[in-house]
Every structure is written in C-alpha cells, then in structure tokens.
Amino acid sequence: MRFTYFWPGWAIVLGIGIAIGITVFVYFRVARPMRPRYRVLLVALRISAASILLACLLAPVVIEKKDITPPTHLSILVDTSRSMELVDEPTAEIPESRLHQVNQRLFDVQSKFLQTLQDRFEVHLYPFNTGLDESVPLAQGLDSEVFQFEPEGALTDISGAIQEAAATWRGQQTAGIVLITDGGHNSGQFPLSTITGLDMPVYAIGVGAVEPPKDVQIQHVDYAPIAYTGHESVIRVRVTQTGYTGKTTRLSLREANGSTLIDAETLTFASDSQTSTQVIDLKLTPQTEGNFQYTATLPTLDGELTGANNQKTFSVKVVKAKLSVFYFEGRPRWDYTFLKRVLERDPDIEATCAISSQGRSRELSGDALLNRLDGYYPQKMPASETPRFPETLAELSKYDVLILGDLGDAHLTEAQQLAIVDFVEVQGKPIIFLPSRNTLGVDGLRTTELAHLLPIDIPANGCRIHDREFTVQLTASGAFHPMLQIRDKQRTQQDGSDVSVGGNATIWENIPVSLSRFFSGFRLRGGATALMENGEGIPILVLQRSGLGKSLLIGTEGLWHWDFGVKTFKDDRYGTIYPRFWAQVIRWMATNTDDKKLYLATDATTYAIGDVAKVTAYLYSETYQQQTDATVQIEVVPPEGAPFQLRIRSAIANTNDSASQRSGTSDIGNLYTAEFELRQKGTYRIRAVGRSGNLTLGEDQIDIYAHPQLAELAAPQLNDTLLKELAEQTGGAYFTIAEAESLPENIANVQNPVFVDAERELWAHPLILLAVVGLLGTEWFLRKRIGLV
Amino acid sequence: MGQLMKWRLFFFVCCLLFYTTIGTPEAGEKFTIAQVHYGGGGDWYGDATTIKNWLHHLRVRTDIETAEDRVILKLTEHILYQYPMLYLVGHGNIRLTESEVEILRDYLMNGGFLFANDDYGLDESFRREMRRVFPNKELQPIPNTHLIYRCFYELEGLPKIHEHDGEPAQGFGLFHDGRMIVYYVYSADIGDGLEDADVHPEDTPQVRELAAKMAVNIAVYVLTH
Questions:
Q1: Which of A91, A112, A539, B99 is the most buried (most CB within 10 A)?
Q2: What ipTM, to 2 d.p.?
Q3: DSSP of A492-505, one letter per residue?
Q4: Please, are residues A331 and A376 in contact by the beta-carbon 8 Å criterion?
C-alpha cells in the first residue's frame, strides 16, 4: 500500500500531533471524574478514528498484479478453388466433394473441431483461392447459422494466402495457421523458404485422395497458326490418361462453332502403365480463307473425374495456297546449307534454291562444271536442271517470297535487278536479305539497283565485320512483332500441365546459343524499323516498306547455330527455334503483302478465362513511317454482351528502347497496345481502326478464344508431399481430414501471460467507513456509559 | 612525347583496331573442318597438313570463306556443334565409347556431316563403329554418277590416290532423311593426296590435283546440300 497524495513528512507528523494533542487536551480537561483507563481508552479511540480519516486524506492505494494477456490468434485458411469441388470417390454411396467434406466434418454445428479451437484461440476463418478473401463470421452457439464454403477460384495460391494471413496478424500473439486444402498450388512458384521465414507454424489438413483420380485430358494442342487452303496441316494433340489402361476412345476435331467433323482418330491407351501420354496427329485441310476456331474433343468416359479438360479450342488463320520461295545465294556457306534444308522440309513452302559463283573474281579451272552452268552450283543430277535466277519479272512473279543471300554487285544482271525492284515495289512482294561480307562490302549491293530496297545505307567503304559472340535482344517493335513470337502463351511443362511462360523478349535473350558475326557502320533508312539488335544497339533485324512490298534485312551470319545442336530450347512443331523463326518470317512477310496499313496482333490465340490478352496494333504509313497524327481505336466483341472499347496506351516515339526496358508497356510511334481480361468462354473478336481526322487509314480484325481455366485439373490428386513438407519446415504438423479432430490438441500453446501493476484506492473502501464508525461508535458508547453525554 | 612513345602508342592503337574489327578467329563464320580425336589406338592425328591444304584449295578455287587450319576435337567436347563437318582418318583401330556413339548419332541426324578417310587399315573398325552408331543403316556404295563427283569439278568418280591393297577406290555413304550424313572413302586416300608435297613425295602433281578436286567437291557438296 502506498499514498498517492503527497504531504511532507513533517506535515503528517504535525497533523497527527495536532490530532493527538487536541484529543488529549479535550479529554483531560473534562471535569467529570472517570477512571484513567476509560480516559486513555477514549483518547485512543478518538485518535485512531482521527488517524484513519487523516490517512484517507492522503489517498491510500494498494498495488495489485493485473492480468492483461492478449488473445492468441489462429487463422484457418480454407481452399475454395475449383479443385475442391472434385469428388474423389464418384462411385461412393453418397459422393462427396472435397469442400463438402470440409463443411460437414470441420465446420458443422455438431463438429468439435471449430469449437475446441475457439475455446483456446481467437479464431479467424478465411476462404482462399487466387488470393485470401475476407474472414467469414463464425457460428456462435448451436442455433446460429453455419457458414458454408463454396468452390469458386480458378487457381490456387497457397503461398500467397499464407503470407497474407500472416501479415494480417503480424506483431500479435499467433498460434499459427491451419491450412485446409488439397495442396493443388498452381499459381506461380511456391517459395517455401519465404514461408518458413515467417516463423509461423502451419498445420495442414489434406483433403482429397492421394492417388490420381481416373481422368482423360487433352494436355496440349500443337498447330501452325497459319494454314493454307487446300493444303493439309497437322494438328498434334497430346492426350494423357490415368486409370483407363487399355481403354479405347476416339479423338475428334471439329469446327468450334459447328458440328462438322473434320478428322477423328481412334486411340487405345497403353496397357503397361496406370498413367500414360499419347500424341495423336489429326489432319486439317481448310478450304476457305479466314480466321477459324477448331476444337479437339475426347468423350467423357465412365467414372471420369471431369469432362472439362476433354477438349481444347484453338484458332487458325487460313490463307490461300502454298508459298513459293526463291532463295538465291552468292557463295557456299553454312547459312545456305541449313536454310535450304529448312525450306525444303517445310510442307507449306515450295522452295527453289540456287547458288551462284558469278560474283567471284577468280577464274574457274576448265574442268569446273560451274563453267558450263554459268557459275551456278548444281543442286541435283542431271546438272542441267540446276535452278537459276529468273531473267524476267514474269518468271520472278511466280514466287511469293524472294530471299537474297550474300550477293555481290556482279551476281545479278541489271535486268534481273530491275525485275526484283518491280517484284517488290510494284507487285508488293516481300524480299529478305541475308547478307554478309559480299553484300555489305565495297563491291556489294551498295551501287546496284537493289540498294534502295535495302533498309540500310551501306557506307562507301563497306560495313565493318565483327566476329565475336553475342545474343540477340528484341527492340520495342520486335517484342510484339508477329514474326518474332516464338512461344505461345500456354506451354506444357514436363509433367504435362500447361504453364504460363515468360515474356517473348526474355525467351529470345535466353536462347542458349550465341551468334558470332555481325556488321556495323551502316545507317538505318528513314522508315526502317529495327526489330532485333545485338545488345550493343546494332540492328540485326531491320524491316521497311519498299513501295508496295516489304524488305527485311538479317544483319548477321550464322543463324544456323539456332538449329544445329540446340538441345535445351526445343519447339514442339518445328524442332528448334531456327525453322520456327524462318517459318514465321516467311509467312508474315508473304501473308501481308496487300496494302494493309494496320495490323492487329495478340500475345496468343487461345487463352484461359481470367487471362489478360495483350493487344497490339501496328499502324504504318505507305513507307512504314510512323503516323504522327493518327489515332487507333480497338473494339472487342465478347461472346456475349455488348462490344466495348479498349483504352489505348499512349504512343511515344522511341525506337531505340530495348524490349527489356519497356517491359511491354510503353510504345513507339506506330505501335499501340491495350489489354483486357477475358471473362467469358468463347470467341472474342477484336477490331481496330486507324484514323487521321476523318480519314480511315486502315482496319484489321482478329479472333481469339477463351476456354475455361483448367489449371485446377492438371494435377487433381491431393498433393500431400507439399503439405507435409510445408508443415515440417514451419514447425507445424500434417493431418488428413479424418485426423483433423485431433489437431486442436496438437497446436502448441504459445500464450505468454502479461501482468501489469494496478492501483486500488482504499479511502472509499467500506472497511474504512466501518472502522471509523466502529471507533467513533465505541467512543460514543463509552462516553454514554460514563455519563459524558 | 618521345618518338619511341609515339610508335608504341601507334602500335597499341593498331592492335586495338585489329582486335575490334577482326575479333577472335574461332568465333567467326569461316568454314573449317574438325578432325576427330577418337580412342581405340588408331592414329587419329594423322594427315596433319591435309585440312590446312584442303581449306587453302577451297579458298583459292571457290568463294568459300575459310579458316586457315583444322580444329581438333573429341566428340564429347561441347564445341562439337560449332563445326558441322568432321574429318576422321587413321590406319588402325577406332573405338568409340557409348556416349561418343550417341553423340555422333545425334550430331549426324541433326545436320552434321562426317567425312572418313581410310588411310589403310581403318576399314574394319570404322564399319564396326558405324554399325554401333546406326544399327539400322548400312554404308551404301556411291555411284560415280553421284553429285558429289560433279558438284564443282566433273570427276569420273572417286580418284585413287594411293595403292593400298590394289583395290579400286570406293566411296560409301550413309543417308538420313535423304541427306548424306557420312561419306567414307576406302582404298582411295584422299587425305594423303592433300598432304604437303614432301609428306608423300611419290605422289605426282597430277594425283595431288585429283585429290584437291575431290576434296573441293566434298566440301562444296556438304555446303550446298
């Protein structure tokens, strides 16, 4: 006890002294005789009462320890992604989904699980899927309504949910996190080290069956985005099955919006393993031009987990006929060897390859066959059938694309050069330059009629050759250019599930082989656009419009390195990046040979619902100059509902930005980007219009397709390995849902009691009053008895 | 600045310019041929001047931009795929390890080419190893009408450079997807015919010229097919 009203010691002593003095003085002046002991007793009673009152004036308090221990929080995270609606035992008497089991066994009013936890902890209940939702109210008593979890999320982000829940109660006393899930994390990486760094035990309750359920799914469809009328294209479908060993089914290919059967194949699943993958080739021979969607479908089998992953829809642009390509090379070199092989093996290309020695200064010896062939290297026997470069425009016009290799100024006659100029500028055909020391040297094409078809100006003393290794980088224009899109948005990883991959520019920068020769000293022509550079700012791929046609320059030698020996970067359809690069370059150059000034492109042709489609519009002038006073409007027609306009990002002229710097968000003068989220299943039509004032500069439209998000079905079984590791690493524990009742007693009590000193005032305590009244009452009683009153 | 210092500075600048414009020769796109360093005890290192002279002939007689000399490598070296053409020569035994067999198979099926020259005594082991590399392929005789004998110089067939056992010069090929991936010359010894003149002084200039023409044809054929 202590006094909270401070008086100096002398004042207290003085006060007590005065009280004693007055009391003694009064009682000893009483004239009435009384026994001394009564007198002393009366004085003592009066002084005691006065002392108590005096002490009360000093505000006495007692110090007590008060328990202020805060509540211990416990977050319960419940997975509400789509995989939680799966029924692991469809043949059971009462089939139960995973989430239904959770609702019934853990959160029912009769369940002791939640009640036991609530008795010990401050419980917070959170549903989660792609993110952590708001906490839901807990049932209070048997009569209150119980919250029922419903499956709704298209993806599962376990790590994000744990981190968010931990952040919510950071700094407060927390017993840990109870995680109720099937472990199907499918939203990016799972940073286990980050979660263990939270220093918070995770108690995982696994829901679902560990054994993969019976299921058949179309994992991936590999196809060429461009097909040709009357020409057969192969659609390669990868099918996986679990639990249907030896079963026979039928894979069909149909138009997405119709019932017309295009092709079908009967397949029998392998009988030697529980799970197997097969690749089936279907044939597509479109008859009309346009954009089409096709769907590959497998029927739903008895007892199958779900039929949602039994079909895939994809978009194909159909253009007319097979492309006819003439490749004219100026000297034997590996670039010719490998490119010729690629062209000859591409079923959509009819290639004619010629190689000439006309430009060489040295005389050939008399028995060189090349003398009789006017300098042409024979390509096959008989040598008389050796292809030669067309002499006239009429002959050249038979071809859709012209590739000129490392030619010097003497490889082509003036008539042939003029024919090429007309081929490009008047007929609107594309030309691709694949130059090296001859073309870019002093005696190269600099002084020929072809010079102005080149998108670069060659200096009078020729370009400088650099023989050193480099990796390519896409420029701002190149990162979105259709020619250079080397990966679809969704690819298949080793376990067969589809995953999103990094940006196109990143994929190019990480090609595992270097190139080793490039050229410098040249200048880009006005209107030319660099799509790729060598990392030092020197253009490697340059595009420009030439008259009605287009010209592309590949300013490096040794692209064949992208083909030969590349093992770590494989393309499903083309084998390596090299044939894919050439296929796309030739097709894009040949397909858009009309006078179109606006082109639309998206980062993929097929998306999952919830994905964001990135739309890019290129607006060119007649000479590929940027349209400074132009506007572009992009409209989207969804499968259902009203069309809507996209918000275009501002166009800022900056052709030197590297792709990595801009990260696909800023723009160059002729490039307009926008994006939108796909929320419905079906075909989205995207239309773009470029205008300058009231003048329409160009229009284009493309179709893309959105299918249901199937990531939740890629690996539908319970991933108890992940959950056990998560529990072990964080100091928690793993339980099956059947064992969940025992979880509460396994959660360590981390409560640390907290006490503080609390003061309790005594002056108003009833005992004080009782004591004073008692003392004074006794005194009065004695005085009465003595006769003083 | 002293005169000597000026010369030193000039020399330094020249060196710098040379380096930045020419670069390292290994990194460029000049055509060269890699000679295979194999195991088994055979003299893989033979024909020491063959490729140098071969490249010289190509440089002088054709438009092909070549390096100065050969590259020697084992099939297991990671730089193998920088050289789409291999040269294998020897007199004795050749033995490939299992991994070399797989590497060579991949190399050839993915676009590489092997020219093998029996210097005398290589035939048995080379055929044995090729059967290991391609169990389902057989070396096929190449007729004299084949383009490899016509693609630059018109030859009547495979020239015979050295006598060996007196058998006629024979060329054999292995094909994959219609492309010749191995060209093997037996009892011809084109490699010896390309050596410096003082290595085999008994070879007449006419014989050596035949070897040079065949060598040019082989390289041109590979580069144009």
A1: A539
A2: 0.88
A3: E-TTS-EEE---HH
A4: no
- Measured between beta carbons, which residues in chain B are less than 8 angstroms from residue A336? 223-224
* Residue A637 amino acid letter: V
**Which H or E run contains B174?**
strand B170-176
Q: What is the DSSP letter of A273?
A: -
Q: What is the pLDDT of residue A144?
A: 64
Element holding A16 (H helix, E strand): helix A9-28
* Residues listed for chain A: 789
Among A381, A382, A434, CA closest to A406: A434
**Residue A570 — very low, low, confident or very high, per pLDDT cuts 50/70/90?**
low
Cβ–Cβ of B151/A469 closer than 8 Å?
Answer: no
Q: Is B64 near chain A, with CB under 8 Å?
A: yes
How many other CB atoms are there within 10 angstroms of residue A211's CB atom?
Answer: 12
> What's A689-708 look like in SS3?
EEEECCEEEEEEEEEEEEEC
From A355, A362, A467, residue closest to B28, measured CB to CB: A467
Asked whether the beta carbons of A79 and A129 are under 8 A apart, the reply is: yes
Query: Are the beta carbons of B64 and A368 separated by less than 8 Å?
Result: no
Q: What are A579-632's pLDDT values in tens digits?
A: 989 988 998 898 754 556 787 888 777 888 888 898 888 776 655 555 667 888
What own/partner pairs with CB < 8 Å and gap ≥ 24 does A47-54 have? A47/A19, A47/A20, A47/A23, A48/A775, A49/A771, A49/A772, A49/A775, A49/A776, A49/A779, A50/A19, A50/A23, A51/A16, A51/A19, A52/A768, A52/A771, A52/A772, A52/A775, A53/A772, A54/A12, A54/A15, A54/A16, A54/A19
Q: Are B80 and B71 in contact (CB under 8 A)?
A: no
